[in-house]
Design a protein that fits this description.
The protein is mostly helical. Strand 1 and strand 2 form a beta hairpin. It is built from 6 helices and 2 strands, in the order ααααααββ. The chain has a domain of 118 residues. A two-stranded antiparallel ribbon has the order 1-2.
Length: 184
Amino acid sequence: MQNQFLLLFLFFGLTSIFAQEKAKIILKDSLQSEAIDPLRPAKAAFYSAIFPGLGQIYNKKYWKLPLVYGAIGTSTYFYIDNQKKYNLYRDEYKSRLEGNTSNSDFLAGLTESQLITAQKGYQRYRDLSALFIVGFYVLNIIDANIDAALSQFNVDERLAFKPAIIKNEITLNNNFGFALNYSF
């Protein structure tokens, strides 16, 4: 009889009996990545090509707007200023070729070779300013495109590029380097 109680105790004691079911805990993945839009860089570049700075607004990089307008606006200012000075020296040179005298004391004191030199200098500066306008305009488009492409990269804490100190077992010295770590 004792053996039967012992067997009965072991049978019921080792088995698990639950009156209620345990609630299953399902963890929601909080690191869901955004859907990648392959046309996002093209849209940003198109918007910047239509109107400078519009691609930066599309990318929500509002702080870049003063840089875009400052670069293009400054280049435009220098283009207009150099064009005015070029026209001033060119008109003075043409009026001297016609035999007219200058109304300005400053321009009257310049020789014809000085007028030609100044005219060529301002023409060169005007052309460089036009080149800078085009360059900053293209740079605006490229910036919007690259910024839109880079904004879709997966950058989270699981992927890290960190400096590492590795203990050398043979010489007992510390070795410094970089390690690319990916944690699951």
